[in-house]
Amino acid sequence: MGIAIILLLLVGAVAAVACKNDKTARLIGFGTTFINAILAIVMTMSGPHETSLFGLSINIGYIECFMALLFGIVGFLIVWASMSMISHDVEESKIPLFYGLVLALLGTLNAVVFFDNLLGVFVSIELSSFAAAGIVIVKNQTENVHAGLKYLSLSILGSSLVLMGMVLLYVATGGHLSIAEIGNAIQNGGVMAEKQAYVLWAYGLISGGVAFKAALFPCHIWLPDAHGTAPSPSSAILSSLVLKAYIVFYIKMVFGGVGFDLIASTPMRALLNVVMVVGVIAMIAGSCLAIMQTDIKRMIAYSSVAQMGYIFMGIGLGTELGLFAALFHILAHAVTKSGLFLVAGSIIEQTHNRDLSKMGGLGILMPVTMALFTIGGLSMIGIPLFVGFNGKWNFASAIVGSGNYWLLIPLSISALLNALYYLPVVIRAFFGQEAKECTEPLGSKERPIKDIIPLILLACLVIAFGVAAGPVSDFLHKGIELLAAIGG
To answer: What is the pLDDT of residue 75?
Structure first.
């Protein structure tokens, strides 16, 4: 089923570009991502399995199914929303190219997660980088070209570091390219003493490469420009999905390759301590930078830098609870941040304004849209009944379980900082002086409800996973158990 998902998306990408018609391309994008979501659900119901593509092994476990569902459902909702939004940012002649790039990107992101063979992973990472840069550049403005090339340059740097780490692992483990085989070699004495240092260097290089790919502070410098200038559906995909594929690859390499037991008793613990501390710095720095922004999309972009910090902090704890918190936050951030970027795009499209200081009264002019922004903002802050609260609760539990109680302080500070840049927007929109003095009819700038149904569904997911996270949590725990067994 994993092969079917990858091939479906790649064939859809070719069809979208080849059709040369914007309306047909939209329908191809919509139909392909809808079928992709169905296939992801079917694959999840069928359970873990192994297969291969072009001779490269594909190992589908619970975490892979989790990510396939995330790519499938969130990707479908973003593409659905883009059908009524993309004309605002992209020339009609380039809309087929946009949908072709999006489908190719989703296909390669699935491949990054699915492949067990490092060669397949690396090729997929490289292809996804070009497709991701393409959905930024497709807007065809000078600032987008610069942002896309900046992203591509730093992404290639990250890929190069990852490749060097892969080569070292290949040498150290006796010529293995399978993550499962690498894990078996590392965990069961298959690495000769004189080459054990290679393993640590390899993971150091891979950590640095993934830091660039996933925009971990201070390697985030491409993200604000790319997310801030890209078409809003592109920003939603980049933030909610693209960053996560590389993180899941890193999780599989660390916890499937080294394993929880060795992490606690080898120099890998020192490396993960660095990852944890950098994650904490990112939590604070990203939020501080977000507070300083005047552009709504750049504010949301810097918020993503902070949220990546949470995820890497959880990984850096090196425990099963820390990994669970990181994986759950991947879900929380994906459904929340995709909605926020699409809401921002709706605001810019309807008001022709990006300046946060000029958004007073939007609660009157666009009540539904601003209600959706409020739901996303409250989730990012960590208010109960929203998925972001569950994410922060999981991190607090993982911190207490690991004994690193000092991390509760930056966790609390980051939540407060989140409130300092989301709540003022909400308060100004609904209760500011501009709202009181607004004489325009209620909802006068609101987009048609049919056009914002995908945004409403994303907000519903934010609430649904906030009040009923049990099934997802159980699924992720199964995934962590299976991951821990790789190579054991």
So the answer is: 94
Query: Could you tell me the two tokens for 476?
Result: 């992720």
Among 458, 474, 248, residue whose Cα is nearest residue 369: 458
With b meaning 16 or more CB within 10 Å and e meaning fewer, what string describes 239-248?
Answer: bbbbbbbbbb
Report d(CA 279, CA 105) in Å as an integer. 26
d(C-alpha 135, C-alpha 219), whole Å: 21
Q: Is 279 left (phi over 0), alpha (psi -120 to 50) or beta?
A: alpha
- Write b or e for each residue in 439-468: b if 16 or more Cβ atoms lie within 10 A of its Cβ, otherwise e: eeeeeebbbeeebbebbbbbbebbbebbee
Q: Which residues of the chain have pLDDT under 70?
A: 52-55, 189-196, 265, 435, 437, 443, 486-488
* CA-only gyration radius of the chain, Å: 21
DSSP-assigned letter for residue 178: B
Domain count, the chain: 1
- Residue 488 has a pLDDT of 47
Bond prior to 448 in cis (omega within 30° of 0): no
Res 194: pLDDT: 55
The tally of CA atoms less than 13 A away on the side-chain side of residue 226 is: 31
**What φ, ψ does residue 214 adopt, rounded to 5°?**
-100, 10
Q: How confident is the model at residue 105, as a pLDDT?
A: 94
Structure token digits, residue 247: 């993180």
What does pTM read for this prediction?
0.92
Q: What is the pLDDT of residue 487?
A: 46
Q: What is the largest CA-CA distance in the chain?
A: 76
pLDDT at 486: 58
Scanning 352-407, the segments in alpha helix (DSSP H) are 362-365, 367-381, 387-402
Between the CA of residue 58 and those of 6, 38, 48, 70, 393, what are the distances in Å?
A: 11, 20, 11, 18, 33
Instruction: Quote the Cα angle for 166-167-168, to 5°.
Output: 90
How many CB atoms are located within 10 Å of the residue 24 CB? Answer: 16
List the structure tokens of 64: 């892979």
CA neighbours closer than 13 Å in the CB half-sphere of residue 39:
21
Indicate if the alpha-carbon torsion angle 198, 203, 206, 208 is positive or negative: negative
Write down the pLDDT at residue 184.
77
| Structural domain harbouring 259 | 2-485
The pLDDT of residue 485 = 73
The reported pLDDT for the residue numbered 325 is: 93
